[in-house]
Design a protein that fits this description.
alpha+beta, two-stranded antiparallel ribbon, 4 helices
Length: about 120
């Protein structure tokens, strides 16, 4: 069900309402399926003026979906996340403070969050 949501989004009634909020579609939807020696699924992508859609399989219908298969999409998905962070000036740093310098725990520091 999850990966078919990108198809439902293309319905004119849904797309018109969605576009009023997220802007016009800048690309047609695409679905990618990678070579893999296990169960494979299609991942959908579509770009709008104000967002990027990544359509993933729903957990209830994706028995057999492995982490190893999802890693194959890391180039496509991580570039979208990096672009989002850059565009929103969302900078993250991992720092080790004095109290945790000998620990394996990194302290997450978020700087300049501007979500909208």
């Amino acid at each position: 069900m999850g990966s078919t949501m990108i198809d439902i989004l293309q319905d004119s009634k849904v797309l018109n309402k969605f576009s009023k909020i997220m802007g016009k579609a800048k690309s047609k939807p695409s679905k990618i399926q990678k070579e893999f020696n296990g169960r494979r699924f299609k991942i959908g992508f579509q770009e709008f003026d104000k967002c990027q859609i990544v359509s993933l399989p729903h957990p209830s219908s994706s028995r057999g979906l492995s982490d190893e298969y999802m890693v194959l999409f890391s180039d496509e998905i991580s570039s979208l996340i990096s672009h989002f962070k850059e565009r929103r000036e969302f900078v993250t740093n991992y720092v080790r403070d004095e109290a945790h310098k000998d620990s394996d725990i990194d302290i997450f520091v978020r700087m300049k969050p501007s979500f909208f």
